[in-house]
Amino acid sequence: MNRLIEYMLPPAKSTMAGETDALFYFINVTSFILLFGITVAIIYFAWKYRRKSEDDVTPVISHNNKLEITWSVIPLILVIIVFGWGYSTYVQKITPPSDAYEVRVVGKSWLWEFHYENGTVSVNELHVPVNRPVKLVMSSDDVIHSFYIPDFRIKQDVLPNRYTSVWFEATEVGESVIFCTEYCGTAHSNMMATTIVQTQDDFETWLESSGGSGEDMEPAERGEMLTQRNACVTCHSTDGTRLVGPSFQGSWGSEVPLESGETVVFDENYVRESILEPNSKVHESYQAVMPSYAGTLDDRQIDAIIEYIKTLQ
Ligand SMILES: [Cu+2]
């Protein structure tokens, strides 16, 4: 039975997951019992009332009150149970406890940005404390996305020009995958992130250490930190490997062939433009799937990234 449950659903790692699963199994098991009962009845009746001789005549039956009431009332009761159960679970899901820790989530094609109350921003990594309600206030910078953490059994559309929210309380330390479940364009299938559930202490340490803007670091060092924190490295390798985008290694000063047939020199202006308006000049052999970092990275941060790319010869 446990194997079957694991096969059907991912591990349940939030306070609400248990109840969601219970309802899911209730619907599944009753459907299965009904399916089985009806199938057996059909086969049995087909056999029992088969035509036995040439002059067998089907009797005329106008109605049967007892039967009709039974087959209306039983499903009605089942549907009322499913509705009531589903409704109360739904209300719980949309009502975050008032002491919930709040994180702002921004979806953009094709990554997730998380903003914490002390100004820390993380990309594609949602850090949360364990055993504490967390409320996500979400919006999109472009098209409709949808935020889904299967382990927590939560899913909510993320819209442009409007906030939506969802909450959960993680019950164990560990990692859970986040998907975008609204088809949002070319790299929709890459729009994945990780929830990192930590103890309250680890979470606070992380918040403090990444809260630092790195302004006191060497520019190239700060640039490296920024390319990791902003998930550049999920698409750009630093060792020449081809990922979704061109590798940063050896790119500084090179001539980049563009889709338009022209070439451009990989210099300060090209990097800056690539970060702020990635689609204005697209590399010949890559798809235009890079999100814009306009409004996410400021000029000093872009300078630092440029210094870092220069070191990758
Ligand atoms: Cu998306």
Describe this structure in words.
This protein has three domains: 2-46 and 64-94, Helix Hairpins (Orthogonal Bundle), CATH 1.10.287; 101-211, Sandwich (Immunoglobulin-like), CATH 2.60.40; 219-311, Cytochrome c-like domain (Cytochrome Bc1 Complex, Chain D, domain 2, Orthogonal Bundle), CATH 1.10.760.10. It contains seven helices and twelve strands. It has helices at 2-8, 17-48, 65-94, 200-211, 219-229, 268-276, 299-311, and strands at residues 101-108, 111-115, 121-123, 125-129, 133-140, 145-149, 154-158, 164-169, 174-180, 192-198, 255-257, 263-265. Strands 3-2-1-5-8 form a five-stranded mixed β-sheet, with no helix packed on it. α2 (17-48) packs antiparallel against α3 (65-94) and α5 packs across α7 (299-311). It is elongated, with a radius of gyration of 28 Å. The relative contact order is 0.10. The structure holds copper (II) ion (CU). Copper (II) ion (CU) is lined by residues 107, 110, 145, 180, 182, 184, 188, 191. The site of copper (II) ion has 8 residues, from loops.
Which blocks of ≥5 consecutive residues have pLDDT under 50?
none
Give the overall silhouette.
Answer: elongated
Question: What distance lies between the first and last C-alpha atoms, to the nearest angstrom?
Answer: 56 Å
Bound ions, cofactors and other small molecules, one mention each: copper (II) ion
- Specify Rg, calculated over alpha carbons: 28 Å
Task: Give the tally of β-strands.
Answer: 12
Assembly level: single chain
Percent range for β-strand residues: 15-25%
Looking at the overall shape, the CATH architecture of the largest domain is Sandwich
Q: Under the CATH scheme, which class of the largest domain? A: Mainly Beta
The largest sheet has its strands arranged as: 3-2-1-5-8
